[in-house]
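Appendix B. Raw example, untouched.
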Amino acid sequence: MRISPYVLMIIVLSPICMVYWQNTHLTRVSLDVNFEISSWLVAYAIPDSSFSSLVDAFSNAKNFVEIAVYEFWSNDILELINSTARRGVKVRILLEGNVYGVEGDEWNRYMLNKLYQLNQSGLPVWVRLEDISGYLHMKVIIIDNSTVIIGSDNYVPTAYPEDPRKIELIPYSTASRGWGVVVNCDEIASYYHNIFSSIFFDADKSHDYDPDIDGTGSEPPSSGVLNYNPKIGRLNISNVPVAPVVSPNNSLDMILWMINRANYTIFIEQMYILSDNEPVAEILDALYRAVDRGVTVQVIVEDNSPGNYYEIYKDLEAHGVHVVRAFSKNSALFMHNKGLIVDDLLVLVGSINWSGSALTQNREAGLLIRSREAALYFREIFAWDWNQSSEDLFDSDGDGLSDIYEREHDYNPNNPDTDGDGIGDWEEVFIYENKYGGYKLEEIPEILLILLVIAVVVMLVVVVVVITKYSSKGKVLRRTIRRN
């Protein structure tokens, strides 16, 4: 049976195109990220520079402050609310009505009763408990529909200490590591104001706190005072592109979008990773694909349950991910962060743990930041945390590239200018896109791969056509010879 050359072309072309499509498209999330430009942004480290960031933001409030948070028992923040309300600023507070564990509920209600007493004294303080399914796990403050504060940690003394040199351990025995940002952007503020209002002002989703019905709770116990040496100040930058990241709306897609566009590095700090939850498994698959395409992935994860270091490190390491146990060398800190840095350019700050409920059920809030300055600021926190969690230094030669990246990509981790050309190794990678230095062939650009595929297909088609053509001529010649 004679096969048409066009059929042969389709047969040859189809698998090649399918492989190319799978490698370049199926691992990416189809997502249109709309960035808004903030007037200014303040990045801070928890607990090092967190409380002072709140003080500055509250001092600028003129009309209202809205607070949505999972847990709240900081007397220092209570006093900040008190002084703000005494200036005539309206304060609306929305707390989770049923936190995980009985004690957290009791401590929340202890603070709710104090806030309620401010209301009863005539101050414009309005307190409600949320009643929606899933946790209200966000940590968000909206000020005057112009400023938003978003972070990874609850409003408790171990995360927001008035004096970070002497942290009140109420009730925890360690300080909490997290990230936070204060951003001035009308669009972002209005976005989160609408989310807050949709719960706060809806009688089906929240109710006014009533001590006679909801209880007055109990005071959280003290474990003493931690003498801490804060290392990390704040970063102030302007004109920063930012985008909201919200569960259950778009957090999974946004995290996948970040990971799937990574070319060089991914740095992750997580309290826990529940790898058996389907949405988390999807994120891990994206991380493993990133490793396969040459991205260096480094993870710091807490060693407490659930989903702790000991439960997931073998699987991560088996896929080429570098993971360390959080603060194994520094017992003063607990990893409560939920942060992600991609290519020293994109940063995710927020409340989103890596669990199925956090990604698809809870009310979570985060902020995606596209800024080299912000990324390098948070990377420096990551580097400090890595050095407190690993025997191997994050960046031995101080060139900005992690030692692991340099070893994986043939740079010298002990020389900030591996090839001696006067250009630092970090600039070689992130400015000049020289991923492998001078030691490996650069990756073939996508357009060249496309052209190569087309050229191979064309050559195969030509060969098929020629073979078919000469095969037909040979048959005619043989018939002629037989007739003669």
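End of appendix B.
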